[in-house]
Amino acid sequence: xxxxxxxxxxxxxxxxxxLSKCMEAAFDPIIAxxxxxxxxxxxxxxxxxxxxxxxWMAKESPALVSLTSSLTKRH
Length: 75
What we know:
The protein has two helices and no strands. It is about 60% helix and about 0% strand. It has a domain at about 10-60.
């Protein structure tokens, strides 16, 4: 899958920000609770993560792999 979900977004500039915001939405509460961190600290962690992602996306051609699994209970 292509990570450029907004078509025309500069991945090197905006892609890292967009992806880090998605990760922040999903994992911020978990990380904050587990490590007992304030919102300011986790915001800074994800800001830096976005910068690292942007740098990586500028150098690579990232692709997203979606893996789905289904579990069933045996009787």
